Amino acid sequence: MIKIFTGILSVIVSLNLLVAIFYAFALVKLITEETHVRNAWINIDRVFKERLHVIPTLLAVFEHHAPAEKKLLREIWDIHAVISKLEVSPEIVNEEGKFSIFEESQAQLTLAVRRLIGLGDRYPGVVKNRDFKVAQVHLDGLENRAATEARFYNQAAVKFNRIAKMFPKNLIARFVNLDRKICFKRELGAEQLFKS
């Protein structure tokens, strides 16, 4: 009787140990994938913050050499102000509303800056301006980096979401509050912003 009880207890302990090991491995996998998503997000955020610092230089050139574009300049300044006030943290990848506002405002800024750059040829003072040329090259590189980082982010988010959906990892993800990650719906910076 004691041998049977010991055998059953041994089996129960072994099963619990196996479940604990599986849980630990699954949790490590989920945390690793979430870390990839967060790191990808940090890279995107860095690119867009850098872009926010370059845009005022571009706007200053147009304000000086192309004051007739006052309406478009005001539009860009307004979008710039909205983006500057957004509180963006890695947790945004779990918040659909904030993520959508971020994505939409970045897309609006990109389109408005593209329109402004397209008007640059009308103003010889803009085209000849050294600050304009430097800002143009810098922004072009940032747009390309944004597109690349957005693709990396989406790949990491899709991978996390796929893993977190599979049973039993979905139970573990829910238990430790690892939520689904939101993906970009738009191509960010997909086209060259400026033609040199």
Runs with pLDDT <50, length 5+?
Answer: 190-196
| Cα Rg | 25 Å
CATH class: Mainly Alpha
- Report the total helices: 6
Q: Per DSSP, what share of the residues sits in E-state strands of 2 or more residues?
A: under 5%
Mean pLDDT: 86
CATH superfamily: LemA-like domain
| Run of helices and strands | HHHHHH
Largest sheet: none
Alpha-beta content class: mainly alpha
How many structural units, i.e. domains? 1
Shape: rod-shaped
CATH topology: de novo design (two linked rop proteins)
Give the N-to-C terminal Cα separation. Answer: 86 Å
Number of strands: 0
Helix content: over 70%
Question: What's the architecture, going by CATH?
Answer: Up-down Bundle
Task: Write a short abstract of this structure.
The protein has 196 residues and is an all-alpha fold.
Labels describing this entry:
196 residues, mainly alpha, de novo design (two linked rop proteins), 6 helices, rod-shaped
